[in-house]
Design a protein that fits this description.
With 407 residues, this protein is mostly helical. It has helices at residues 25-34, 67-82, 87-95, 101-115, 120-124, 133-145, 148-205, 211-226, 229-246, 248-260, 264-285, 290-298, 304-318, 323-328, 335-347, 350-406; strands spanning 3-9, 15-21, 38-45. Among the domains are: 3-45; 67-159, Up-down Bundle (Receptor-associated Protein), CATH 1.20.81; 264-366, Receptor-associated Protein. A three-stranded antiparallel sheet has the order 2-1-3. β1 and β2 form a beta hairpin. α7 (148-205) packs antiparallel against α11 (264-285), α7 packs parallel to α16 (350-406) and α8 (211-226) crosses α16. Mean pLDDT is 82; it is low at 48-62.
C-alpha cells in the first residue's frame, strides 16, 4: 500500500504534518477529512530506495533516526514479538504509535515488503543509514534460529549501553569545552575592548614601556588588523583536517597519533577493547558463527590502526587457532583479556566472558577519561590564569612606573 506525507489544517487552525497509508491520494485525503482535518498537500513518498532522501521535501540529514529512536524501536519490537504477535502485526502496532514521520514511513514500507514475502532482515537491509550491517546480520541469525525476540532484546540492550557511554563521554567533556570557550572569550574581550582604552593612556606617558606591555600592545594591534581573519583560518583549518581525516591515509595517521599521546592513547585502547568485547558478545549470543562475528565486530573498532590489526586475528581463527591465543598476539590487547577469553572458550561461556571483559574495560575507560580530564582541567585553568595575569601585569606595570616617576 502506498505511503503519503500530508500537510493539513486542524479545526483550531493549527497546521499538522504526518504520514498516512492509503490506496491512493484521493483515499488519503478522504481519510484526513474523516479525522476533521483539511488537507493542504498529500504527496506519495518512496521509502524503499536507499538513495531516496528521508522525505522528498528535505534531506536525509534532517531526518536521521537517533540511537534513542532505534533503541526504543528495537525494544518495543522485542516485547511485541515475545507477547505472541507476528512481525507484521508488531510493525502495524508500532507504526500507529510513532511520532517520527520518517521512521513511520520506513516501518510502513518494511511492513509492506514483509507482506510481499521478504524476510525482516532483507527489508531492514534497504536502510543501511538506520540499520547497520551488524544489526541486520543479527536479525538474520535470529530469524534463522527462531530466537528473534531474544536477539532484538540483546540488540536493544547493546544500543542502550552505547547511548549511556556516549552521554557519559559528552558530560565528561562538557567542563573542559566550557572552560576553553570562556578562556577564549575573556582573552578576546580584554584584547578588543579593555586594551584599546588603556593604550591611549600609555601613549600620553611619553616614557619607555616594559617589554611585556610592548608585546601586549603588539598583539593587540595585530588582532585589530587581522582579528577577522582568525575565525576564517580556524574554519579552513578544521575543514582541511576533516577532509584529511576522511581519507584512508589521513584517518590512519591521526588514529596512530592519538595512540601515541600519553594518557589519551590508554583511554582509546581501553575504549576499543570494551567496544570490541561487548559487540562480539552480542553477535555471538545471536547465533552467528565466530568467523562471521569477528568480521562484523571489526567494523565497530573505530581506530583504523587497531581495526587493521584484527585482520591477523581473523586469519589465525581461520587457520584453527583459538580466539584467546589470537588476541594475545596483539600488542594492544592486555594479557588478562586474552586469558579471560581463553577461559571462556574452554568453559563454553565465551559470550558471558566477553561481556565481563566489556564491563570491566568500560569502567576502566571511564576511569582513564577522568585521569585525562584531571590533568587537562588544571592545565586549562593555569593557561587561562596565565593569559589574564599577563594582561593585568602588562597594564599595571607602566602605571606603577609612572607613580614612581611622579613620586
Amino acid at each position: 500500500m502506498p505511503v503519503f506525507s500530508y500537510e493539513a489544517v486542524a479545526e483550531d487552525g493549527k497546521k499538522i504534518k504526518g504520514i498516512i497509508d492509503a490506496e491512493s491520494a484521493r483515499v488519503a485525503a478522504h481519510r484526513l477529512k474523516l479525522k476533521r482535518l483539511i488537507p493542504l498537500r498529500v504527496t506519495e513518498e518512496t521509502f524503499h530506495d536507499t538513495r531516496t532522501p528521508a522525505v522528498s521535501a528535505g534531506s536525509r540529514f534532517w531526518h536521521r533516526v537517533s540511537l534513542s529512536d532505534l533503541m526504543v524501536l528495537t525494544r518495543q519490537l522485542a516485547i511485541l514479538l515475545k507477547a505472541g504477535l507476528s512481525v507484521t502485526g508488531s510493525l502495524t502496532a508500532m507504526v500507529s504509535q510513532l511520532k517520527n514521520p520518517y521512521l513511520k514511513g520506513v516501518l510502513t514500507n518494511i511492513r509492506e515488503r514483509l507482506s510481499e514475502g521478504s524476510s525482516l532482515h532483507e527489508a531492514l537491509a534497504g536502510y543501511p543509514h538506520i540499520f547497520s550491517r551488524l544489526y541486520v546480520e543479527s536479525i538474520a541469525a535470529g530469524e534463522e534460529s527462531g530466537r528473534l525476540s531474544e536477539v532484538l532484546q540483546g540488540l536493544s540492550e547493546y544500543i542502550s549501553r552505547q547511548i549511556t557511554l556516549r552521554n557519559r563521554l559528552l558530560s565528561a567533556l562538557a567542563y573542559p569545552v566550557v572552560m576553553g570557550v570562556v578562556a577564549l572569550g575573556v582573552f578576546f574581550i580584554l584584547m578588543t575592548y579593555v586594551l584599546p582604552s588603556v593604550s591611549e593612556i600609555f601613549k600620553a606617558i611619553h616614557q619607555p614601556l616594559p617589554a611585556t606591555t610592548r608585546l601586549l600592545l603588539g598583539v593587540g594591534k595585530w588582532m585589530e588588523a587581522y582579528g577577522m581573519i582568525i575565525p576564517v583560518v580556524l574554519v579552513l583549518g578544521i575543514a582541511a583536517l576533516y577532509r584529511f581525516r576522511r581519507t584512508a591515509r589521513g584517518r590512519k595517521a591521526l588514529d596512530r597519533l592519538w595512540l601515541k599521546v600519553p594518557s589519551v592513547g590508554t583511554w582509546v585502547r581501553k575504549g576499543q577493547i570494551a567496544r570490541f568485547s561487548r559487540t562480539l558478545s552480542t553477535i555471538l549470543a545471536s547465533g552467528i558463527p565466530l568467523m562471521k562475528a569477528l568480521r562484523l565486530t571489526k567494523g565497530v573498532v573505530t581506530n583504523q590502526v587497531l581495526q587493521t590489526s584484527l585482520d591477523g586475528v581473523i586469519r589465525q581463527i581461520g587457520e584453527g587457532q583459538p580466539l584467546g591465543w589470537a588476541l594475545g598476539q596483539l600488542s594492544w590487547i592486555p594479557p588478562v583479556v586474552a586469558q579471560m577469553v581463553a577461559v571462556g572458550e574452554e568453559s563454553g561461556e565465551l559470550e558471558d566472558m566477553l561481556m565481563k571483559v566489556a564491563e570491566m574495560y568500560e569502567e576502566e575507560t571511564e576511569a582513564a577519561l577522568k585521569t585525562v580530564l584531571s590533568v587537562t582541567e588544571p592545565l586549562m585553568i593555569l593557561f587561562m590564569g596565565g593569559i589574564v595575569g599577563w594582561i593585568v601585569i602588562s597594564v599595571l606595570l607602566p602605571i606603577f612606573n609612572m607613580n614612581q616617576f611622579i613620586g
